[in-house]
């Protein structure tokens, strides 16, 4: 092979890259930073939901972490979040999760997020709305993103939709908000309550994945299409996903309708109640 042939040059480049990677590894570098944006289908494709009677963006709500510390030893082997090779539904971890590998508690995760500017949602937010509730919760609710009130108060689900979610938890499930954990797909309020864009979701998703890894609940309740479609990587409309058990990295996931949608379509509360009853049966509370 001639020394200046394309094959020879490619071999040289490969060799140099290999040597560089080994050098980094020797210096303690475990991996490479993720690409800033993950290419997703276009917003109109992934979030198109003709079945959905309306966007939930107009009255979204969400939450804030207020359990500051969780001992590392609480993350017992049973909370191992490793993806089971036997679970064919387990999605591949987003590349952005790699830098969070050492994070073991919600408090550490919040510290790691810091004054996050990983996506453009940082520009107009008032505060990062991280999540709230019991870090050892059996049930985690995942919504879409903070709305006006949540951004103002720094706490998720504190607006009208949040009040309805609270009623579902307290009156329907006979539990307290502090018994469950509530978080969102994106931690910063999209301006004018618009839908989050796929690149914004991709930037923030590693934080949600880590929250779920740390809490390792028995059941995730995905509220609305953004939560369900993001976690399941499935563009099926929420009206068809809801009520059917799914799996997120080995955790049972129940997709259901968003409380904001229920405010506009109260007749569908009965559907959500059916989904909630299935969850209660799953955790032995019904
Ligand atoms: S939405 Fe998430 S990724 Fe974007 S700035 Fe806020 S915390 Fe960071």
Q: Tell me which ligands are bound.
A: iron/sulfur cluster
Task: Quote the average pLDDT.
Answer: 78
Radius of gyration: 21 Å
Structure classification: alpha/beta
In whole angstroms, how far apart are the ends? 73 Å
At CATH's second level, what is the architecture?
A: 3-Layer(aba) Sandwich
Number of strands: 6
* Model regions low in confidence, pLDDT < 50 over at least 5 residues: 19-92
* Order of helix and strand elements from N to C terminus: HHHEEHHEHEHHEEHH
- Number of H/I helices: 10
Which overall shape is indicated by the principal axes computed on the Cα atoms?
A: globular
Number of domains: 1
- What characterizes the major β-sheet? 6 strands, mixed
Which sequence of strands runs across the widest sheet?
A: 1-3-2-4-6-5
* The CATH class: Alpha Beta
Describe the structure.
- It is a single chain.
- With 286 residues, this protein is an alpha/beta fold.
- 36% of the residues lie in helices and 9% in strands.
- The protein has 10 helices and 6 strands.
- The protein has a 6-stranded mixed β-sheet, with helices on both faces.
- A hairpin with a 2-residue loop joins β5 and β6.
- Residues 19-92 have low confidence and may be disordered.
- The chain binds iron/sulfur cluster (SF4).
- The site of iron/sulfur cluster has 14 residues, from α6.
